[in-house]
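Local shape tokens

___
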Amino acid sequence: MLVVKFGGSAITDKKRPYTYRWGRLRAAAQALRGTRAILIHGAGSFAHPHVKAFGLTPAGVAKTKAALRRQTAMVVEDLAAASIYAMPIEPSEVFWGAKLVRREPIDAALSAGLYPLLHGDVVPSDGGYVVVSGDDMAVELASAYRPRAVVFLMDVDGIYTAEPGTPGAVKLREIAGGVAGGAAGIDVTGGIAKKVEAGLAIAGLGIPAYYCSIDDVAAVADLAAGREPETCSVARPSK
């Protein structure tokens, strides 16, 4: 089994609210056919603007949830075009804060041959409603389901020491912490630094976390087949 996250920056234009990049995920999704996986999509430009503008007020929660329903419908349709048939799982029904508290909807989808699909969201917690990123969900799902790998599919081909394309930026093959980074557009969940933190937490569970370009179909195919991709960054468990 894999846990695969389609990054919000890869499938939406974070600089333009509610802009979904139709077809961007299809080639990578096709490479997953026949591989058991739990899927996550980033909220991207569909949720971050609402949280930024309204916070976690009743208006902010309601507007964010409505936007995410629209985005998830697009993702399900896009995946179906790649013959990946997803069952949307409402995060607020299975997460309490960053903790997975109910597995039955996910297990039922897997048992039926569907791909459970979650997303970064606003969920209830002991302290009221909170934002839980898809990266945080990936850590929790890795802990619960023990996949052989977690895969972050992004709009860049790995983790760099600085913004890709800037002088001195070097792609890291293996990640050991200490990488700083922002994110293009509005992002209230932490950007690249948060992804690194999540990957290191996953590696701490004894599970490798790979950071690949969403356009690197060969890398996704390698991971689906249990092979080591040559073109991705990885947070690897310590020996």
About this structure: Residues 180-190 have pLDDT under 50 and may be disordered. The CA atoms of residues 72 and 88 lie 7 Å apart.
